[in-house]
Amino acid sequence: MVVILKRDPDKAQVESLMHWLESKGIDVHTTVGKNQTILGLVGDTIHLDIDLIKALDIVEAVRRVQEPYKNANRKFHPQDTVVKVGNTQVGGGNLTLIAGPCSVESEEQIVEIAKAVKASGATMLRGGAFKPRTSPYSFQGMRAEGIRLLGIAKEITGLPIVTEVMDISQLPLFENVDVIQVGARNMQNFELLKELGKMKKPVLLKRGLSATYEEWLMSAEYIMAGGNEDIILCERGIRTFETYTRNTLDVAAIPVLKNLSHLPIIIDPSHSAGRSALVEPLSCAAVAAGADGLIIEVHNDPPHALCDGPQSIRPEVFEGLTKKMAIIADTVKKVYAK
Ligand code: PEP
Ligand code: MN
Known about the structure:
By secondary structure, the protein is of the alpha/beta class. Helices cover about 35% and strands about 20% of the residues. The chain has helices spanning about 10-25, 50-55, 105-120, 145-155, 190-195, 215-225, 255-260, 270-275, 280-290, 315-335; strands at about 1-5, 25-30, 35-40, 60-65, 85, 90, 95-100, 125, 160-165, 180, 205, 230-235, 265, 295. The strands form 3 sheets. An 8-stranded parallel beta barrel has the order 7-8-9-10-11-12-13-14, surrounded by 5 helices. It has a 4-stranded antiparallel β-sheet with strand order 2-3-1-4. A two-stranded antiparallel ribbon has the order 5-6. β8 (about 125), α4 and β9 (about 160-165) form a beta-alpha-beta unit. α3 (about 105-120) runs parallel beside α10. The longest helix is centred in the C-terminal third of the chain and has 22 residues, at about 315-335. The radius of gyration is 21 Å and the shape is elongated. The protein starts with a strand and ends with a helix.
């Protein structure tokens, strides 16, 4: 349920309404906008007397929220959420460019790629240390050592680092990590999501391989219900009948999620396509559709990459891509300018 307050409401009356709601076991989330203040009510609101609330002097309107996600719902929080990561911001009109290898392979590799993508305008560095591989015989990542090496690349370049967690037990290693990635295969690892809800660190939440928008937002809700509201959604392609591409990029997720939620959404064209030649056209489509950013796999030697070489682009290709994205982002702003 959301309670929309009138302009400049009497503070004492607002407080007494909030105390009354809290006494009924309802959590109240207040969003103060330019023109409106909205109280988002989370909890068992079924027995609340809507007419009683509507009749209050300070109340403009009361609406029931049908969707099961509340904190992640645009109705609760009409303004876009902007997630701060180091000196950069995700959402709010910024184009976030996260780039780096699928996996950290050595200090030399991660530092070389980090320097190259930074020079091309990347705003964050990605690199997997814990890798969810389909085969137990494939490279599983450098694990703790991989996170240490990402830390070195961060120190040298100043780029914030994004890396994936696969299990709660790994979280103590993530202190120096700026954004914790939840991979597609873990989108519904609810115990992990609850633990991330207790942390004060941004989370990049990838869409599950066959997850609906609502299931994806419910996973965001798990994290937000714990108090962590810094979530970046990431569409990374879904399972369809098509086998030519690794997954099918669902571009519609961008406008749909922007409508349903206030959370920023970025696109991963690398895992969507599984083919390096498709990374640029899919990136163009994503930015044109209003994505807040991209996360792209960049490798200095794709044929010898230990993971996802066929979908990795070289640093010089990334450089060309960033220039094109800047042009598209600029055009998009003009096209949608009010
Ligand atoms: C990755 O980003 O390297 C990764 C494993 O992604 P996803 O969870 O989307 O498959
Ligand atoms: Mn990968």
